[in-house]
Amino acid sequence: MRLNKLLLLLTAFFLGAKVTLADVAEGEKLFNANCTSCHAINEKVVGPALKDVDKRHNEAWLIKWIKNSQEMVKSGDAEALKIYNEYNQSVMTAFPQFSDGQVKSILEYVKTGGAAPVQAGGGATASADGAAPTSGEGFYSQTMLIGLSIFAVILLFIIFILVNIRKVIERIYNEKFPEELDPEDVKLPWKQNKKSTRYKLFVKHPVVGTLAVGAIITLVLGLYGFDFANKKVGVQKGYAPVQPINYSHELHAGKYKINCQYCHSSADKSKQASIPSASTCMNCHMYVKAKQKYNGQVSPEIQKIYNAVGYDAEKGTYIEGYKQQPIKWVRIHNLPDHAYFNHSQHVKIGKVECQSCHGPIEKMKVVSQQRSLQMGWCINCHREAKVDVANNDYYEKLHKDLKASNKDFITVAQNGGLECAKCHY
Amino acid sequence: MENKNKYWKGLEELNNDPKFVAAKKNEFAQGIPLEEVLTDSDGEMQSNRRDFLKYFGFSISAVALAACNNIPVKNAIPYIVKPENITPGVPNWYATTCGACSTGCSILVKTREGRPVKIEGNADSPVFKGGVCATGHASLLGLYDNERLNAPRKDANESTWETVDADIKKALSSAKNIRIVSGTITSPSTKKIISEFTAKYPTAKVVGYEAISYAALIEANKRAFGKAVVPSYNFDKAKVIVSFGADFLGTWISPVEYTKAWAKNRKAEDKKMSRHLHFESNLSLTGSNADYRFPIKPSMEGAVLLSIYNKIAASTGAPTFSVPTIEVALNSIDLTAKELLAAKGQSLVVSGSNNLDNQLLVAAINGLLGNIGSTVDLDNYSNQVSGDDAAFEAFVAEMESGAIDAVIFYNTNPAYSYYNADKFKNALKKVGTRITTNSSTDETGELCNYQTPDNHYLESWNDAEPKVGYFGLTQPTITNVFNTRQVQESLLKWAGNTTDVYSYIKNNWQSSILMAGEEAWNKALHDGFYLAAPKAVSSASSAPLANDIANKVTVNYTTNKNNTEIKLYSKIGLGDGTHANNPWLQELPDPISKVCWDNYLTIGKVTADQFNLKEGDVVTLKAGKTTIEGLPVLIQPGQANSTIGLAMGYGKLIGKVASNFGKGLGKNAFSLVGFENGTFTYNTASGVSLTKTDDGYELAQTQTHHTIEGRNLLREASLDEYIKNPSAGNNDHAHIISLWEEHDSKGHKWGMAIDMNACTGCGACVVSCSAENNVPVVGRKEILNSREMHWIRIDRYYSFKNLATGKPSTKEKEYNDKNNKIDFEHVTVMHQPMMCQHCGHAPCETVCPVLATVHSSEGLNQMAYNRCVGTRYCANNCPYKVRRFNWFKYRENDQFDFHFNNDLGRMVINPDVTVRSRGVMEKCSFCVQRIQASKLKAKIENRKMVDGDVKTACQQSCPADALVFGDMNDPNSEISKLFKNERKYVLLEEYNVQPSVGYMTKIRNVNEPIAGEQKAPAKHDEKHEEHKAAEHAHS
After folding, report:
1. Which domain-ending residue is among B921, B956, B991?
2. What residues in B contact A420, CB-CB < 8 Å?
3. Which ipTM score applies to this complex?
């Protein structure tokens, strides 16, 4: 009985510990996604530094405050009013969508002081550190390939030896029993054997032979060259240049789920999706400095933005009279001058996902060109993509005609999407 | 088959010159320029087979190596702080006022990522109604002229604003006599700033100087009506327009405004048209568009005017004057007087002369006819031009006497344009402080010790009051390219006022123009103009003519009767030479002669024969004390006999384009300007002689590049015929059998209609197209090789019309007979814009071996540059000769140092249009980039396209609204309606290539039929002796 109780207690303890660890990870995720634009743990940003927040307020109060601080201010809560006035009456965003548990987990994370938990359920932290799981796969396939190659070489060697052994035995046998040798079977070297094709080709008609061989070589090389020119020349598929700032789409678009068009704001209204100006970065990075990862220092990558715009991270102000330095990103997706591409046509009208052309951008630490961007690739999509005639009044007449002819859809190609002057002018 | 006028483009074609005929047998004037490429600079063919193999081998390996290279790293550099109103890739439009000349047209400027790339007309403007002239379009390129001064200069050395300001302030404060020599200023704020300046420096006075002066017009109105102004002319209210050498559609006062108004009554809508009569010496753009054109010598103008005045006066009971009988074409005086009298109060007489007597007569005639207050508005007058020639003369004398201490030149260059440049230069040397604000070093700038460069108008805040009550605002569309400062700011600084120009103008507007606050200012800034309530228009009769006027015009007429006279004129585009450094304008063919990159003597055939001159001869011209050497001769049909025309604005020695890299480009004609009776005169009759030299000179003329082979491309009818039969002149339709399957086009089908009645041939569309479509400038040498690149050209055709019988001369024999002297004075002209016709069954498409030019479902003839391998079969097979081949790489090539050759010049490139490379064909695309952009706009706005959504570059700013573009599948579009009009025809219908461009038969408001019955043989004016002789010889 006592033992049972002890067991129960132990189980509860371990379970509890496990829950706590999981909470911290969950809390970190939530904190990073929702809080970092105004709060840091160890320093004052827009809102107060959160270190020891659990000691300043009790948990129930904190849950209430986080879910809807304004309500508390209005109700006249003394503690709430004090903070509200202290921070120039700026309103803290309400998070009514959080469950109590979620708020608690955030608080758990805050308690740890922002240090990443030592051991947690895997997921979040591991993916933040590196791409360990995928690299393993690569390793195995490589070893496998090398192993197989060695095996193949050994097999070939064995075949070679066996063939040689057979030849030696045959020679010895023929020398031993020359009477058994059929004169018909005597193998002349091909240069003397007038029946052999090789003789006919290279001795009797050397020109034909040379030409034939030449033609074969040319054909092979030509095919290779054609393939090379077609697929490689000017094609930058896989191009992943080093950028001036080690910016990770995986972190921003993947982990924090920032909408693509928050930064690439003109994708739905312009030819260019546009690379965000440094001031757009500053919307968040005025506060998000990732100090917890760099021993209290501003992340050196984020510092590059500050250097560009002239922002003093310590004082939290822009430096007056600073000579701003534009960030020279390296362009990855390059279309030639004679091809006109308009993002808004594809994003807004065609409703094409960014990923269709740019690949799984939300998983890329370093952006690389995923598609060939060759004309054939464009055309293929134009052949398959359907025009959304029903939901745009521009296509009113086309839609009517389609309905009249009992057709369900029309592809971009059928609507003239393969014509030269749709992209080349 | 109807009998047709014979049309011809030039004398070579008319006379079937063997050289011309031989040259025209080939599609391209010259073969592949291998020699040029392989020849060393000393001109000898150095290359041989070995060299060929070397080049060949090198090319192969170079190509192979190049192909293996990785694409170079390209950077994408975003804004640090993105301006809120700029979306990369989306153009921003700013309403502003054109500053290319003092006319002050309201324009819109398209900017991309903060750099202006296109100028268009502001269609909301009630005065200019969306038109822009060629100069206005091209002034955009002036912004990116890398020869503009990059900083202020002191004694020709680069300096800083602080230094020059301090120096100038010091000099001005100790100066006893200060003069500001300025061109026309229409800006109320600038005037106010100048008054502040003169308040600070009381000895300062403004001297108005215009190279092409309107002093006589202003003085005449002062004497006749007591108002020293340039009136506003309402061409749209005039049923009868009579012009004496006033090129109001091309270069006179406010051509865009006048063209809009003129064209309104010229489209034969409701079968009504105004009638336009024109007296002039040189064949001008306006003269070429007149219903009746009468060639006269400049010295005859006064006598003709007085004769007309007498006839009108006789019928209205005013006093008449004695005038000699004038030998002028036919019944022109009777006809003009009759027409004018029939349209009293609805007629308009204008003169381009700067002779006070002539302008007084014009004022008197308008007064007699009751036109003041209806077609001539002296109350809401124009500020667009000015001139006080006597004051400038006095100023030069003052300088000579050493009385002037300091002079500031604003927007004027007298060292180039003053007739006695040496006198001016010597006088200027006596002035201690010489300041110029011109934005690049010019002839005057070279002599100044301070150069304080003005901004380009696209970088400036400014305003304008082109006409009383019509205000325009100028706002910057780009930050300063160079370290320049606008004149207004300089003057304020020197006057000790530290207000910035923006605040100054804003305050001035709010306090004295708008009389309202922020909202009104913002609206004016948004609109680009502000229209105050117009003043009440009063009618007036002119003061009686002085009695000595009869004597003066008679003397002028009789003394010069047998003299050869020179008439100076200004060309569309180049004007007084201010824009001579602009390659777009230099490459724009003259609307009449179709010559680019030069000025030359225009001489009529008869006069040329008298002087024993032929086209391409080089002569030395002497007139009084002036001698100009090395002038090429151009035989100009329509030129009045015994007159010689010469364009001003050429012969500059500064500016790489203007001076053809120092080699000289044309001759400066300003030295022929005279000063008589208080005004500059632009014609001279005293002691004109021409001496032929042994040299020859070929003019770069685009008209000779093609021949029409007598095909039926031009159709015209008289208004009477048209009223009787709406399809008059357009009955000849081909019987068509089609070999091809019809294209089916369900969506859009784009087409264009061109109204030959409205098109004046001004060339605004040509420059607009060049700007929109990145058309390269190729230069004089390449034009001579027939390699111009313009996507739209305006073909100009002459035909003879016999004024005696009113019948056209049609007989082929008549032209080919060498002994038959034809009346070259009286030619009629037609202008025909020509661009890719986007044929339904395009001949170019069927011959392209690589399918680089194919048809689109929207009716466009598409050109895929990167597919083109340059066989030029398409150009060979194009019946309209509109395809252009890139013989060279025109960008980043020092052989073509125009604007594609430097970083700054390339800022003008339209980023939505490919810059073509060597070896590919190109041609008009119907501005497909605009079509695509408009379609996308409609899709984003979730709506159907409406008529007028797409406006091509040529159409948008056509001052005459001659071009209409639209969807032929939309039954309600304007184009569909026009295509149903009886006047519509297509070129070379018999080929059944089904062009998408339709032309509207030209209707002339003349009394006699044009192409009707052809019974009577052509007879020539019997007053001309030589013609009589020829007739005899012929019969």
Report:
1. B956
2. 854, 856, 862-864, 867
3. 0.84
